Structure formats: C-alpha cells, structure tokens
C-alpha cells in the first residue's frame, strides 16, 4: 500500500488527475488511492475533488527532489543525498548508520523533536527537515560550540537567500525579527553524537526550518516562516546551499574549533542589550546581560554577582520580563 504522500506527489495544482490514472501508475487499486487521499488533510493539504474527473492540489507543493538537490551542490561535494517521504525522525534514522557526508531529508516527520525533547511541528511542503552525518577525528570534548557554528552557517546562507532579518539565540535557535522588534522562532538545530572522549566522534546534525507555517500552529512560542521574510529560492536549492556552506564550516570547525566563528555568532545574537534569564532544568534561574561568548561557545552573563558562565546544555535562555 502506498502512503498518502506518494499519492499526493502524483497530483499538481493546475490539472485534475483521475484516481484510475494514479492507480495505474502506482499499480494499486482505486480504493487504495481514495483511502490514501482521504488523509490529505492530516498533512495540512487541501484537495479539490471533482466527481468523475479526479483530484488536484488546491495549492502547489514544492516537492523535494534528489536530482534537483544534487544539481545545486558545489563541485566536489561529499554529500550523499537521500530523500524520504516519511520518517519518524531524520536524526534517529541517521544515527543508525551515520555515514560521513550522508544527508537525509524528509517531507514529513511523525516523531520530529527539538532540543530538550520538545516536538517539532512541520507542514508538508512548507518545512525543511534534514540531518547530516559528519565524522570528527577528535573526541566529544572538542565539539563544544558545534551547534553555534552550525547556526552561523545556516544564518549566513539564509541572509544570502534574502532573509536579512535572521538572528541566533543561544544555543541552537534561529529567530526572525518581526516588524523590527519581536523575535519569532523560524528554525532549530539538534546535534547528537556517538563516540568517546578520545574520538573519533560521529555526529548527526539535525536542522528544521519553517519555510511556511501551518494554518494553525500549536507551538508554545511565537513562530515565523522564511517565505514571509524574503526567501528567494525553493527548498531544493536552499538545502543544497546549506549543505555547501556546512561542508565549509564543518571543515573549518574541525581545524580551529568555534573560536574563529565566535565574532560572527555574536554579531547575529538576537538579544545583545536585554536582560536575560538562563533557566536550568531544576528551575534555577541566572539573570544578567549578555556579555559575549567564551572560546568554547559558553554563554557569558553579567549578573549582579559578577560574570557567570553558562555552559551549553539543558539550559533555556529567555528574555527577563
């Protein structure tokens, strides 16, 4: 039985396609086509149905395409691109076999998650959900600051792609500035690794970006989309651009760590002059003003008791109200 996304890929927004035609192409029954397409709304996709004629998409979908992605990659790229319709989580899947340079991207995640185990909400055709496997010769101790380095790479690509209002929030969020004031989340980074303290380390870098937002989102914080902020390319080209930059940045990080990228991250920091709360998992709060980052990416806060160093970990950073 074919999944709903495979069936939706047979449709477009301009012409009607009959259920019989889809059934013939995919060698399945018309009943399977009807049942599969009845679940389109689950993915936020609206269909136009016309009895005796067929189906069409109400809005076009910019489908992910391995050939298109590979065509945008720079010469000599080591990326091994794999496109999937549905996965539980690109990170979890890639951790099973983290081949260096493997780039796994999916249209839909059933169990996508962000940092601290939070669920990641996507929209079919309106998200970019992918993971990249990378091998570092050094041990895990040398990878401090890696989420920040990845954030710099992603933000720089987005700026080049027309999203000038992009910013970074320590340690792994990408935010958009709305109306020159409010910041809203547009993406996140989740890094998981295998290996020991002496190395080598096999790292899976998961990135989720909101290209568009679902009609109703149930996020616990303000969210935004790249399309509304000036993004000037499609998902396939954007993914390839991100891969090209990540190859450069990760090689640089492997040689010199985060310190060389620190000025770029600090320039992209979203709340440079605001009072911040660093909230630990046990609820303990450190309050202070941003004082920059240390060489390994730790957050420096100026507090009433002096400078406090917050190490990357299960800490949430929020503006103090």
Explain this structure to me?
This protein has 321 residues and is an alpha+beta fold. It has 3 domains: 54 residues, Arc Repressor Mutant, subunit A (Orthogonal Bundle), CATH 1.10.10.10; 202 residues, BirA Bifunctional Protein, domain 2 (2-Layer Sandwich); 49 residues, SH3 type barrels (Roll), CATH 2.30.30.100. The strands form 3 sheets. It has a 7-stranded mixed β-sheet with strand order 3-4-5-9-8-7-6. A 5-stranded antiparallel β-sheet has the order 13-12-11-10-14, with no helix packed on it. Strands 1-2 form a two-stranded antiparallel ribbon. Helix 2 packs across helix 3, helix 6 packs antiparallel against helix 7 and helix 6 packs across helix 8. It is globular and about 75 Å long. The N and C termini lie far apart (52 Å). The model has no long low-confidence stretch (mean pLDDT 91).
Q: What is the overall silhouette?
A: globular
Count of discrete alpha- or pi-helical segments spanning 4 or more residues:
8
CATH superfamily of the largest domain, called what? Bira Bifunctional Protein, Domain 2
Helix-strand string: HHHEEHEHEEHEEEEHHEEEEE
**Structural class of the helices, strands and pairings?**
alpha+beta
Tally of DSSP β-strands: 14
Strand arrangement within the widest β-sheet reads 3-4-5-9-8-7-6
Determine the fraction of residues in helical runs and give it as a percent range.
Answer: 10-25%
Main beta-sheet strand count, sense and barrel state: 7 strands, mixed
* CATH 2nd-level architecture of the largest domain: 2-Layer Sandwich
